[in-house]
């Protein structure tokens, strides 16, 4: 069941309960920094872009304008450097938004300075994609800890609306409620509250699937893996292309953090494949370096990595086994017959289809296992996977498979652990439908291709 | 076809952007004639499967295609640009007021979870922006002045009094708490835009047929004028069409729509709220669905179910849905 949103009157009360007119963004030259800063300029009169140098902050502003395609961003923006402007910008801010590099020490060093200058009533938020909120504010003053939380936008923030909100153990609940209402109403965000667990909800569930795809690529090759866990399994972008887009270094930071700090039923799935480590030493980081699982030459010819040899081969030379079941599924999706398409996938009799089913069973199993750990119910995981990753939410897949009993059967057959929530639902027959969010059109997740 | 419709009498209605309202009129007429006691009116449009230019060309068939649309890129922005030009000629018109209408619709849309633009980057400054980020698409009409292509669908149920009585009893509700269509107006004008304005050259209103549609609906609802209406869901396919609606509803004297904009009367908590939902500009304009969506939003308002975009205490809400360049106009008054 979806979390119950606060009433309109309660939202109005929350929005009126605090002044939020000045935002200072730290690290405003980074992707998340300028993307988030652009969002804020839409909602508040003054946003200060801060970076190591004023020139870098100006570059951030330029990138923000380009990102949302509106020169009006500049009307609400100020720029400055940490050396010259941090004190004034932080002491004047109602919200200090930290978007520095994903490094605990770097962030903590900045918070030393923020603490010195911030007003006692100002909110401090971090856009970390998975570092512990409690660890980030450890050793800070009581006021800091009460006003500190994680506000995790996904990239690019002006397009992806799914946003995680993570309270620390001492964050004032009124601050959490206020930031949630502000982000939802004024920034148009879809808000998901998560626990302060490694990588929170979206990246925990999503990157495990991506990493397993990377592990599979070692034996099957990237082309086949991206076909098998492709659009027909409920996503617009294929997994390895996603890692290339995100950047291999970011992928490593997320899965390493999860691997080191969790011990769940799918622990090994979060271990980075050795070939990725080796290639990163040679500078392979995905699209930003021109090479990842895939790359294109000057003539746009596409090449694919052979993980064993580290060589690239033309994609056109890759032989694929018979995958006609994918075409059959896609044809049904194109007509909006998602359930029937899913049945064709579940019934497809081939070695490859079984591999694909194991990957999807792994996704559903891992997501439902996280209920109670990263979010209170499956609803939060569903919404962040749908509106943060643009993947079919796990509950949608269960519904399309024909309900909990069918999903449990599929998961068992794939040799993947059955999550207690689904096992219980399969026994009782309730709920009959897991996904019931009228604001999310599930058709968008079933991509024919 | 969904199996649920199998074996049911169905019909399809077409009147360009007013299709949804024409379907509502037909459905309500059949109920009043006693043929049926319950009708599902479905509005649906899928527009994003083709490019904007291709979609614009398809929409051009809602005008006199050979004369007003053939070979013209984005014909409708150009036609509604001319509506602005006509206001400018007769009364004067400032782009700033159009930008304010755009801003208001986008702002309201941020309060509507079903609005397609609720996360778009938009504000009055951007609407006034005269750079390539907000390019002109038809005379004075820029992107920020347009409702943009939308996939969308909506369904409402209309019922006879007897059916509603039984339904209310089963739901534990009072019949008088269930919103009714209290009044309707419907009119048609000449197809070509140039003919419409030539005809109205000596009249007070730029589109007199639209004015009579609005007043007919009020009259049938037993409401004297716009002061008896608590909120409006109007057809802002472009900012100029909402500018036109303001004086045609009688909120200001003809040609003085700008006053309502400047005074803030159109805000959700203003004297005459228009498009609390975000309208076509903010919520989206899935062409065939729009008229039905307006009726549903009116229903939400008068039942206090509009959430963040609720007009406090709304009892009577009026819609205005127009097809073509103001060719077909339909208005409903929904109230409790």
User: What spatial form of chain A do the alpha-carbon principal axes imply?
Assistant: globular
Sheet with the most strands, sense and barrel status of chain B: 5 strands, mixed
How much of the residues of chain A is beta strand, in percent?
Answer: 5-15%
Oligomeric assembly: heterodimer
Q: Low-confidence segments of chain A, ≥5 residues, pLDDT <50?
A: none
Spatial ordering of strands, largest sheet of chain A = 3-2-1-4-5-6-7-8
- Name the average pLDDT of chain A: 95
Count of runs of 4 or more consecutive helical residues of chain B = 13
Q: Compute the gyration radius of chain B: what is it?
A: 19 Å
CATH class of chain B: Alpha Beta
Biggest interface, residues from each chain: A-B, 18 and 18 residues
Tags for this model:
heterodimer, A: 449 residues, alpha/beta, Rossmann fold, N-(1-d-carboxylethyl)-l-norvaline Dehydrogenase, domain 2, 2 domains, eight-stranded mixed β-sheet, three-stranded antiparallel β-sheet, 20 helices, B: 336 residues, alpha+beta, Peroxisomal Thiolase, Chain A, domain 1, five-stranded mixed β-sheet, two-stranded antiparallel sheet
Structure described in brief:
Chain A is of the alpha/beta class and 449 residues long.
Write the layout of secondary structure elements.
The complex is a heterodimer of chains A (449) and B (336).
Chain A: H1 8-16, E1 22-26, H2 31-43, E2 46-51, H3 54-68, E3 77-81, H4 82-92, E4 95-98, H5 104-117, E5 123-126, H6 133-136, H7 142-146, E6 148-153, E7 162-167, H8 173-186, E8 190-194, H9 202-220, H10 222-228, H11 239-246, H12 248-261, H13 274-281, E9 294-296, E10 302-306, E11 311-314, H14 324-334, H15 338-347, H16 351-369, H17 378-387, H18 394-401, H19 404-413, H20 420-428
Parallel strand pairs in A: 1-2, 1-4, 2-3, 4-5, 5-6, 7-8
Antiparallel strand pairs in A: 6-7, 9-10, 10-11
Chain B: H1 19-32, E1 38-45, H2 52-59, H3 65-69, H4 75-91, H5 95-109, H6 124-128, E2 136-138, E3 141-142, E4 152-159, H7 161-171, E5 180-188, H8 193-199, H9 208-220, E6 231-233, H10 239-248, H11 257-263, H12 279-282, H13 290-302, E7 316-319, E8 321-323, E9 328-335
Parallel strand pairs in B: 6-7
Antiparallel strand pairs in B: 1-4, 2-3, 5-9, 7-9, 8-9
């Amino acid at each position: 069941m979806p979390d119950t949103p606060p009433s309109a009157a309660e939202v109005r009360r929350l929005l009126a309960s605090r002044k939020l007119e000045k935002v200072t963004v730290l690290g405003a030259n980074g992707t998340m920094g300028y993307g988030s800063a652009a969002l804020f300029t839409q909602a508040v009169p003054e946003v200060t872009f801060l970076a190591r140098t004023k020139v870098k902050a100006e570059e951030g502003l330029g990138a923000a304008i380009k990102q949302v395609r509106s020169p009006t961003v500049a009307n609400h923006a100020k720029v400055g450097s940490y050396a010259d402007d941090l004190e004034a910008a932080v002491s004047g801010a109602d919200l200090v938004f930290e978007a520095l590099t994903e490094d605990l020490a770097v962030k903590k060093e900045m918070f030393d300075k923020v603490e010195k200058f911030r007003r006692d009533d100002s909110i401090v938020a971090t856009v970390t994609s998975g570092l512990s909120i409690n660890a980030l504010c450890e050793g800070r003053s009581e006021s800091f800890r009460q006003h500190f939380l994680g506000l995790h936008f996904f990239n690019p923030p002006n397009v992806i609306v799914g946003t995680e909100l993570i309270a620390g153990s001492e964050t004032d609940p009124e601050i959490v409620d206020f930031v949630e209402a502000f982000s939802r109403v004024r920034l148009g965000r879809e808000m998901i509250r998560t626990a302060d667990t490694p990588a929170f909800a979206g990246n925990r569930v999503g990157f495990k699937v991506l990493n397993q795809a990377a592990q599979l690529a070692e034996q099957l090759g990237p082309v086949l893996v991206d076909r098998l866990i492709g659009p027909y399994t409920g996503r617009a972008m294929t997994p390895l292309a996603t890692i290339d887009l995100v950047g291999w270094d970011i992928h490593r930071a997320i899965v390493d953090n999860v691997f080191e700090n969790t011990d769940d039923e799918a622990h090994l799935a979060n271990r980075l494949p050795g070939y990725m480590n080796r290639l990163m030493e040679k500078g392979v980081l995905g699209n930003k370096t021109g090479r990842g699982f895939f790359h294109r030459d000057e003539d746009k010819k596409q090449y694919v990595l052979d993980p064993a040899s580290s060589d690239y081969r033309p994609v056109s030379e890759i032989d694929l086994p018979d995958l006609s079941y994918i075409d059959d599924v896609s044809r049904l999706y194109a007509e909006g017959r998602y359930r029937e398409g899913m049945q064709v996938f579940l019934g497809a009799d081939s070695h490859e289809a079984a591999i694909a089913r194991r990957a999807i069973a792994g996704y559903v199993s891992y997501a439902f296992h996280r209920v109670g750990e990263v979010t209170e119910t499956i609803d939060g995981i569903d919404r962040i996977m749908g509106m943060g990753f643009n993947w079919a939410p796990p509950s949608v897949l269960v519904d399309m498979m024909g309900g909990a009993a069918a999903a449990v059967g599929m998961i068992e057959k794939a040799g993947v652990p059955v999550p207690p929530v689904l096992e219980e639902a399969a026994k009782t027959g309730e709920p009959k439908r897991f996904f019931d969010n009228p604001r999310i059109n599930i058709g968008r997740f079933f991509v024919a291709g | 076809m969904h199996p649920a419709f199998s074996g049911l009498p169905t019909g399809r209605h077409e009147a360009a952007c007013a299709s949804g309202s024409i379907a509502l009129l037909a459905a309500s007429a059949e109920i009043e004639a006693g043929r049926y006691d319950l009708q599902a009116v479905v509005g649906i449009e899928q527009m994003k499967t083709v490019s904007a230019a291709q979609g614009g060309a398809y929409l051009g068939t809602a005008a006199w295609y050979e004369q007003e649309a053939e070979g013209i890129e984005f014909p409708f922005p150009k036609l509604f640009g001319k509506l602005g030009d006509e206001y400018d000629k007769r009364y004067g018109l400032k782009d700033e007021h159009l930008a304010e209408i755009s801003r208001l619709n986008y702002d309201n849309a941020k309060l509507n979870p079903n609005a397609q633009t609720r996360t778009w980057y938009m504000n009055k400054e951007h609407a006034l922006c005269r750079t390539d980020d907000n390019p002109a698409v038809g005379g004075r009409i820029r992107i920020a002045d347009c409702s943009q292509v939308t996939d969308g669908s909506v369904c409402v149920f209309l019922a006879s009094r007897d059916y509603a009585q039984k339904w209310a009893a089963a739901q534990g509700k009072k019949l008088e708490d269930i919103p009714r269509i209290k009044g309707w107006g419907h009119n048609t004008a000449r197809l070509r835009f140039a003919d419409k304005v030539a005809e109205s050259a000596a009249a007070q209103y730029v589109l007199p047929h639209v004015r009579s549609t609005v007043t007919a609906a009020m009259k049938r609802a037993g409401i004297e004028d716009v002061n008896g209406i608590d909120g409006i869901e109007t057809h802002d396919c472009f900012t100029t069409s909402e500018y036109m609606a303001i004086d045609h509803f009688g909120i200001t004297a003809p040609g003085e729509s700008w006053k309502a904009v400047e005074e803030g009367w159109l805000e959700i908590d203003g004297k005459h709220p228009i498009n609390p939902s975000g309208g076509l500009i903010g919520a989206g304009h899935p062409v065939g669905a729009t008229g039905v969506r307006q009726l549903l939003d009116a229903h939400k308002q008068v039942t206090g179910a509009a959430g963040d975009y609720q007009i406090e205490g709304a009892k009577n809400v009026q819609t205005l849905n127009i097809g073509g360049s103001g060719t077909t106009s339909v208005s409903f008054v929904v109230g409790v």
